[in-house]
Amino acid sequence: MRPTLLLLFGLLALSFRPDKPAYRLYDAKTKAVSYDQLLRRAADADVVLFGELHNNPICHWLELQLAKDLAEQKKGQLVLGAEMFETDTQTALTDYVQGRSSDKEFAAQARLWPNYDTDYKPLTTLAREQKLPFIATNVPRKYASLVARRGLSALDTIPASAKQLLAPLPLTVDLTRPGYKAMMAMMGDSNHGSSGAPNPHGGSTDMAANFARAQAIKDATMAYFILQNRKPGQTLLHINGDYHSKNFDGIVGYLRDMAGPSLKILTISSVDVADPDNPKVDDDTKLSQLADFVIAIPADMTKTY
């Protein structure tokens, strides 16, 4: 073959990527790893927190694959849990996965998220088919909203029966934890005008702090119900928004507070990046700071909503 043709073929080979990955997986050392490595670590964990991007199909597909593979490996020792189901809907969720109610009845009883059919129904279907326990872990939204409006002290006014749906009270919230601190900073900025004056409808500091406390009651409640529903030897795979567990914070912090360092927690974080082969989140964030495993997904990936 002529040298010019060889050069042409070489240039063509360099101009086309061999594939377009839907995602790349990295460990806490920012080293590219395989799904099998993630699966092995997950099977050995007590709690796996899968931090998803709610509208990302790659996250939802990987959640389903991980649940299927863990169910096969754990041989009856897998429990599922999810932020998407609130604690007062546990009976409805249990009835559905145990085959005692229909899809229509479940939808009427469980306050399903708008993207349930496309994004979470595969998980409840898997639990129904394999008789896997499925735990509703999130605080009922009306109580999170109450905290956001009036602070944690407002929970003193709710009935004792309602308090059984939350993490034990009184709840300690450390607003210096990175996630809550960042949330307060974000809310503080949104509650000030260009002049820097406080929002006339209330003190921006109090509003931002209560918003972070509402996040904390969610995190603490999820941690509490994870621990209440996992037995020794089991792995509980929990699905939650990435913000609830990234930076080893949020749910992770409350799990540590409640169970101590002996609990084996594995965290997975999901990020949108321009190039999954060379992932970069932003100038201040390293992949190694986010989780034990990071799923790097093309930023232009099709969304479910």
Task: Write a structural description.
The chain is α/β, with parallel strands linked by helices and 305 residues long. It has a single domain (23-298), classed as Rossmann fold, CATH 3.40.50. Helices cover 43% and strands 15% of the residues. It has helices spanning 3-15, 35-43, 57-74, 90-97, 103-109, 116-130, 141-150, 160-163, 178-190, 204-228, 251-259; strands spanning 24-27, 47-52, 78-86, 134-138, 235-241, 265-273, 293-298. The protein has a seven-stranded mixed β-sheet with strand order 1-7-6-2-5-3-4. Helix 4 runs antiparallel to helix 5 and helix 7 (141-150) packs antiparallel against helix 10. Residues 192-203 have low confidence and may be disordered. Residues 38-255 form the Haem-binding uptake Tiki superfamily ChaN domain. Pfam families: Cofac_haem_bdg. It comes from Spirosoma rhododendri. This is ChaN family lipoprotein.
The beta-strand count equals 7
Uncertain parts: 192-203
Strand order of the largest sheet: 1-7-6-2-5-3-4
| CATH-derived architecture | 3-Layer(aba) Sandwich
Mean pLDDT across the residues is 90
Strand and helix order: HEHEHEHHHEHHHHEHEE
With helices defined by DSSP (H or I, 4 residues minimum), what is the helix count? Answer: 11
Radius of gyration: 22 Å
Silhouette: globular
How much helix is in the residues?
A: 40-55%
Derived from helix and strand composition plus strand pairing, the structural class reads: alpha/beta
What's the structural domain tally? 1
Sheet with the most strands? 7 strands, mixed
InterPro entries: Cofac_haem-bd_dom
Domain Haem-binding uptake Tiki superfamily ChaN: 38-255
Protein name: ChaN family lipoprotein
Organism: Spirosoma rhododendri
